[in-house]
Design brief:
- Chain A is α+β, with helices and mostly antiparallel strands.
- In chain A, 29% of the residues lie in helices and 21% in strands.
- In chain A, the strands form seven sheets. In chain A, strands 9-10-11-2-12-19-13 form a seven-stranded mixed sheet, covered by helices on one side.
- Chain A is globular, with a radius of gyration of 24 Å.
- In chain B, 77% of the residues lie in helices and 0% in strands.
- In chain B, helix 5 crosses helix 11, helix 8 runs antiparallel to helix 11 and helix 12 crosses helix 13.
- The radius of gyration of chain B is 24 Å and the shape is globular.
- Chain B starts with 6 loop residues before the first helix and ends in a 6-residue tail after the last helix.
- The N terminus of chain B is likely disordered.
- Classes of the chains: A alpha+beta, B mainly alpha.
- At the A-B interface, helix 5, helix 6, helix 12, strand 17 and helix 14 of A face helix 2, helix 3, helix 5, helix 7 and helix 12 of B.
């Protein structure tokens, strides 16, 4: 029996809008200071957060992530339906939508964009829609996806940046003999259906977006979004300078406020120091192979040692010291904002005696030596590792810290040539499958290159990728997380929000748990 | 007394210009191979924790990075002789475009910083030397010593906090649009850069002036009845400036290095920041392109200081 999953088409402003009682004021320029410039504004070929978190203002996806990160809303598709056997995914495309250059959005654009996104030769995100076997269009408003197998992650996938819809004709008319060349040329002046259109970009200095007068989403006042006329993104890499600019009133918002400054900005009467819930988790990856690349025996191969090292860390103290209490303990390897997270309480609450007992049990009663790679120049890494160094010394474990620059440590990482390393993760898709495939599922990247392999987890993951029953799938993820927790292939540390400081006049802005900066509902109060 | 310009001078300049060419090729070869010997590659550096073997291998192959280094160098040379510096791997735009956009900014910054350094150093050195070991001398030397010992980023943040953010006399970082705005935006960063350089120049110039003031030919000039100011200008300053000009040329590398930090603190889109980011990101074409342009720049500055030195002291040019 076909199940119509009817999504409510919200009359008022959709996801990401703070529901304020006052009406939004229209007009004005919002200046938002970023810590780094975007690199490449193509939804399929981009690689980094600095691109992803801006793309959603230029391009729309068929579905859109909800503000809390757990579900999807209509986007360029007004509704979708999944067949009983899970092999057909039908979308109804919103009518009357125009691209930034005025040309109409058609079902052909949708088919072409999705085909481009799922091509494994294009970029690194094709896995998000690799369950699609072929795509048909029907009439002017229907797109049918034929799947290789049932895919419970597809709705979330269609809300992810790489499946954004581009104008086929305009793109194909761009000069270039390969898709990469065309992508480069097109990304110089991108055209999408998003709330803002690209105006100018002085690389390394500032990007300017202007209001899309033809946008399809409606504001509280019944007129089209966005409320703002223009957004300017100056690039200010130095944290102290970025904050100074905000305090001087030269910008309206500043992202990535260092933890140490959050308290001070909270007390500033002119600013709102926002801490947006995020999917960001901080942890230490462990190499769990029996021997390291230099042939020495690896104490981390024993799960008791890994558990002991986890128990030996006072996470609350660490969170206080490193994040000035901005962070929170994690309950799983995934953040609390990731769907299907299993919450059994904070991971490995501090217990030094248990840690010592486990170490003795594993034969390391007289101590052990481990080393960890830190990112050179990172204040956070420094704070985390020096704190942990002291805590582990209490249970007889010596921690050696190796500082390396990013490219060098990534080379070690890929070669499995490390014992431990500091790590950060944010989800790119509103589904636990991505983080699980990287952390726990061996065939992807040998579990964060650490070598952790558990056949139960691998089998559960494979099954869960085709399980359409949400209750059954949730249960599979519960099992995966509990098995992973016991095996402790990582040192669980904390999760932390996105720290953004805004002038009090800025309203309606939100950074969703995935990291996307949503400006469609933002406005400047007069 | 005046330098002999003409055939001797031109030959000297031509020889020096010709010397830039082998330097250039040496820099090209060294930078090309050195940056590729660094561990890591641009693709896995940017993908970081999300890097899968398949993606890294595929993308590196697309970029031609799996070929032997000598083949890559040959390809680079072939493009280079056609004036093509290839595209940035990370930013996906031509390296030439990046240099054209960013080099003038760094030149403006370092040029302004040099000017400020000289304007600070020369009068102070003069006063210091003339009032040798008396109060003004001690005050000036201490002040410059403090400037010399403070790190560049610290001075930068202090200036930004007080003169920009609090007093609003200057904008907080950035570059601005148009010459006037550039001047206003770059004043603080140029001042930051100039402080340590001017300290070095001032000390050296002061000592040189003292040396010259004590020299025989000055006494001789005085004995001949030449007025003090004339002595000062023509003889003392001119001869004292020689070693300072040389010192300036030698410090051009430090100036550019300081520009890197200043560009980051003040959010200025120059090549300093670009080359550092590119080394960290293993963006080989950008590192090569910027290193080569900086090599040319430094060579020209050294040539200019040598010419200036030759003008001030004709004995050098022969």
């Amino acid at each position: 029996m076909t199940r119509w999953i009817r999504l409510m088409v919200l009359a008022c402003a959709l996801f990401g809008l703070a529901t304020t009682a006052e009406a939004a004021t229209r007009g004005g320029t919002l200046t938002y200071a970023r810590y780094a410039d975007s690199l490449f504004l193509d939804p399929v070929f981009n690689d980094a957060n600095v691109d992803i978190w801006i793309l959603t203002n230029l391009y729309d996806t068929l579905l859109m992530p909800t503000a809390d990160g757990k579900g999807v809303n209509p986007g360029l598709a007004t509704e979708y339906k999944v067949a009983d056997d899970g092999l057909t995914f039908t979308l109804k495309i919103r009518q009357g939508v125009k691209f930034g250059d005025g040309s109409p959005l058609t079902v052909d654009d949708v088919k072409w964009s999705l085909d481009r996104a799922r091509n494994p030769k294009n970029g690194i995100w094709s896995f998000i829609v690799d369950s699609i076997d072929s795509i048909d269009t029907q009439g002017a408003d229907t797109v049918v996806l034929h799947l290789k197998h049932p895919d419970p992650t597809l709705a979330a996938g269609l809300a992810t940046f790489n499946t954004a819809i581009l104008p086929q004709k305009l793109y194909e008319a761009t000069p270039g003999s390969t898709d990469e060349e065309k992508a480069k040329a097109f990304a110089e002046k991108p055209v999408g259906t998003g709330p803002f259109v690209f105006d100018s970009w002085q690389r390394g200095t500032e990007m300017v977006l202007k209001r899309n007068p033809n946008y399809w989403q409606m504001g509280d006042d019944g007129k089209p979004l966005p409320y703002l006329d223009e957004i300017r993104f100056p690039v200010i890499p130095d944290d102290a300078t970025r904050i100074l600019k905000l305090q001087a009133g030269e910008v309206d918002g500043a992202e990535l406020i260092p933890y140490a400054r959050v308290g001070e900005l909270k007390n500033d009467p002119n600013l709102d120091m926002e801490l947006y819930p995020s999917t960001k988790v901080t942890f230490l990856t462990m190499n769990v192979r029996p021997t390291l690349t230099d042939g020495t025996k690896n104490p981390l191969a024993d799960p008791r040692v890994r558990q002991a090292l986890n128990y030996a860390i006072d996470k609350n103290a660490l969170i206080k010291i490193v994040t000035f209490d901005v962070g929170k303990p994690v309950v799983s390897f995934m953040s609390s904002a990731t769907p299907l997270v299993d919450d059994q309480g904070p991971a490995y609450p501090f217990d030094a005696s248990k840690a010592k007992a486990l170490l003795a049990d594993a034969g390391y009663g007289n101590g052990a030596e481990v080393s960890c790679i830190a990112l050179a120049g990172s204040a956070d890494d420094n704070a985390i590792l020096t704190t942990i160094q002291q805590m582990w010394a209490q249970v007889g474990v010596t921690l050696k810290i190796d500082q390396m620059d990013n490219a060098t440590r990534t080379a070690h990482y890929r070669a499995g040539d490390f014992q431990m390393r500091t790590s950060l993760w944010t989800d790119d898709i509103n589904d636990p499958s991505e983080i699980t495939s990287y952390f726990a599922y061996y065939p992807q990247i040998q579990s964060l290159h650490g070598g952790f392999q558990d056949q139960t987890i691998d089998d559960l993951y494979t099954k869960s990728q085709q399980e359409m029953d949400s209750a059954k799938r949730a249960d599979m993820y519960k099992q995966i997380q509990q098995t992973y927790m016991k095996a402790a292939p990582i040192i669980f540390l904390y999760q932390s929000p996105y720290p953004v400081a805004l002038r009090k006049q800025v309203k309606g802005f939100v950074q969703i748990p995935l990291g996307n900066n949503i400006f469609s509902g933002a406005y400047l109060e007069k | 007394m005046d330098s002999a310009r003409g055939p001797v001078g031109l030959k000297y300049v031509a020889v020096r210009l010709a010397q830039i060419v082998p330097t250039f090729f040496l820099v090209m070869v060294i930078v090309f191979f050195l940056v590729r010997y660094l561990p890591g590659d641009p693709t896995s550096a940017v993908l970081g924790i999300r890097a899968t073997e398949e993606a890294v291998t595929r993308i590196n192959a697309q970029l031609g990075l799996d070929r032997p280094m000598i083949v890559q160098f040959w390809i680079f040379l072939q493009h280079f002789v056609r004036g093509d510096l290839l595209d940035s791997i990370i930013l996906k735009v031509p390296v030439m475009q990046l240099i054209e956009e960013r080099m003038p900014v760094t030149l403006f910054l370092t040029g302004l910083a040099s000017l400020i350094a000289v304007l600070l150093a020369v009068p102070m050195a003069l006063m210091s030397a003339l009032e040798r070991d008396r109060a003004p001398d001690i005050v000036i030397r201490s002040a410059f010593q403090i400037g010399l010992s403070m790190p560049v980023f610290y001075i930068g943040i202090v200036l930004l906090t007080f003169l920009a953010a609090r007093l609003h006399w200057f904008p907080v970082g950035g570059f601005g649009n148009g010459f006037g705005e550039h001047l206003v935006h770059l004043f603080l960063p140029a001042l930051t850069l100039a402080l340590s350089l001017s300290a070095i120049l001032m000390r050296n110039l002061r000592n040189s002036i003292i040396e010259v003031l004590d020299a025989d030919y000055v006494d001789f000039a005085r004995a001949k009845g030449l007025r003090s100011r004339l002595i000062l200008g023509r003889h003392v300053l001119r001869n004292a400036l020689v070693s300072t000009v040389v010192l300036f040329g030698l410090n051009i590398g430090t100036l550019i290095g300081g520009a890197v930090i200043t560009e980051t603190v003040f959010a200025i889109p120059g090549v300093g920041r670009l080359i550092v980011d590119s080394v960290f990101g293993r963006d080989y074409p950008v590192v090569q392109g910027v290193a080569l342009s900086l090599a040319v720049l430094v060579s020209l500055v050294l040539l200019a200081t040598d010419l200036l030195q030759a003008t001030l002291d004709p004995r050098v040019a022969r």
